[in-house]
Amino acid sequence: MEQLQPYMPMIIQAIAGAVGGNVIGALRRNNSFGPLINTLLGAVGGVGAAQGLQAGGMMEQVLAMLGDNANVANGATGLAGGLVLPLIASFFKRGS
User: Fold this and answer.
1) pLDDT tens per residue, range 26-85
2) What SS3 state is found at 79?
3) Is position 77 within any domain?
4) What CA–CA distance (Å, rounded) separates 2 from 92?
5) Is residue 19 one of the residues assigned to a domain?
6) Is 81 within a domain?
């Protein structure tokens, strides 16, 4: 399990993002890409958003808002990114 420790933030972000992708897919059924694509878009969006916040130096503010719990901060930012990327992509879906 120690070998996964460095990757744990990205795993949490991807899982939370996948959940977010499926939530937005369920809410926007008419423009949904289906469960597999929603999951992949959500996971990519979750990791991308969290890593972007980390690179921009804003993850510390998220940590402070969420009680200095890194796992919760990674999950929250992953969920937010997982909601946003499939939502944006759904606006570009043909036939909508």
Assistant:
1) 998 888 899 999 999 999 999 999 999 999 989 899 989 989 899 999 999 999 999 999
2) helix
3) yes
4) 41
5) no
6) yes
Q: What whole-number distance in Å separates Cα of residue 24 and Cα of residue 82?
A: 8
- What type of residue is 58? M
pTM of the model: 0.89
60 torsion bin: left (phi>0), alpha (psi -120 to 50), beta (else): alpha
Number of domains in the chain: 1
Q: Tell me whether residue 70 is in a domain.
A: yes
> H/E/C letters for each residue in 17-74?
HHHHHHHHHHHCHHHCCCHHHHHHHHHHHHHHHHHHHHHCCCHHHHHHHCCCCHHHHH
> Residue 47 is part of which domain span?
37-88
93 DSSP 8-state letter: -
Q: Cα dihedral angle (19, 11, 85, 92), rounded to 10 degrees?
A: -90
